[in-house]
Amino acid sequence: MSTAPVLALRGISKRFGAVQALTDVELEIHPGEVVALVGDNGAGKSTLVKAIAGVGPADEGTIEWDGKPVQVHRPHDAQTLGIATVYQDLALCDNLDVVGNLFLGAELRRGSILDEVEMERRSLELLSTLSIRIPSVRIPVAALSGGQRQTVAIARSLLGEPKVVILDEPTAALGVEQTAQVLDLVERLRERGLGVILISHNMAEVKAVSDRVAVLRLGRNNGTFEVATTSQEEIVSAITGATDNAVTRRTSRIEDATPEVEK
């Protein structure tokens, strides 16, 4: 893409005791694009997300934000930069209504009193701009469907006006119609100019909404693919290891040719 990446990972490595979870991982996220992060179980997806979100900082490597190296040692660092993460468990409070969940921990006050009117106004405005259909912002979250709960969690992440949103398996437990609602919302995040990292096991969904697919295998990059020009079979082959890493193969070819040039 022509624009500079808003978020770039350079040589990210992470070890847990004797286990090397990530090795020299590279990833770029540009404004207004959806990058799917895929890989088999144990490929390192969750570890990489935690490194970006500040939950489990990397041991080695650099995180760049708008082209400049930054330190992300804790979740607050990531949030301050403009990185929002929506985890699979959503972390919603069932007994609170939609407004209460959207502003949980960031309540608006007028003096010492909660400004319920302003929070409700902003909630309605946010949900409207994202075309999120909720019966009422004053019903308990427990009464919402799985898809509606997921959209509320995503909407909450946008209150801080982030530039990058990480979605961890947002459709894992949803039905067909609810999944469609969430995928529509992902596309609207792109339209708003946000960079989106989508972690998913569903290749059909990945192909439907992603611009690029970054494959992790055994904690390493195993290819980055443009969705428009790559078949689902090619991506699955990279995930399973049925094909070589294209980057590694190219590097090997160059190294093999170098001695011949020097002679």
Query: What is the CATH architecture assignment of the largest domain?
Result: 3-Layer(aba) Sandwich
Beginning-to-end CA distance, first to last residue = 38 Å
- Main sheet properties: 6 strands, mixed
Question: How many individual β-strands?
Answer: 12
The CATH class of the largest domain: Alpha Beta
Helix and strand element order: EEEHEEHEHEEHHEHEHEEHH
CATH H-level superfamily title of the largest domain = P-loop containing nucleotide triphosphate hydrolases
Number of domains: 2
Tell me the β content. 25-35%
Number of helices: 9
**Shape by Cα distribution:** globular
What is the percent of helical residues?
A: 25-40%
CATH fold naming of the largest domain: Rossmann fold
Structural class assignment: alpha/beta
* Assembly type: single chain
Rounded Rg: 20 Å
What is the average per-residue confidence, as pLDDT, rounded to a whole number? 89
**Strand line-up across the major sheet:** 6-9-10-3-11-12
